[in-house]
Design a protein that fits this description.
0% strand, elongated
């Protein structure tokens, strides 16, 4: 993520990318989900790529609080980016994180799996549907 050229700021931005407290981690997750570089992310947020460093160092707003809207508006004004696009990014990353944290039935890929009945192979499942004849194999058993 681009900083202002100052090595200290660039170091802070790189640290913010790994800390859930900061927007830097959220921006990095969004970039990874969509395979975006800084230029593309800046375009999506309608801001200059240089503004991403300022965004990265902002505290991630909590969407469960009443101040969420005001926080997003303040952050968007600071970085000169679209507040609507920033909310979209925050919501998408939160939704994907929520799916990944599901503790129910999960596949090897971490996604929830739908429950389904298992049928034993070769055995009839009960009475045939109304109007349907049983096959010779079903009649034998």
């Amino acid at each position: 993520m681009v900083g202002n050229g100052d090595p200290a700021i660039q170091w802070l931005v790189s640290r913010a990318r790994g800390d859930a407290f900061f927007l830097g981690q959220t921006l990095a997750e969004y970039q990874a989900m969509h395979g975006m570089d800084d230029r593309e992310l800046g375009g999506m947020l309608q801001c200059a790529p240089e503004a991403l460093g300022r965004l990265a160092l902002c505290r991630r707003p909590d969407d469960q609080t009443a101040e969420f809207r005001e926080d997003v508006l303040r952050i968007a004004a600071l970085a000169s980016c679209s507040a609507e696009r920033l909310v979209q990014l925050l919501r998408e990353v939160a939704a994907v994180a929520s799916l990944r944290q599901g503790r129910g039935e999960t596949s090897a890929h971490g996604m929830l799996m739908a429950a389904r009945d298992r049928r034993s192979r070769g055995k009839p499942t009960g009475k045939p549907a109304a109007g349907k004849k049983r096959s010779k194999r079903e009649r034998k058993e």
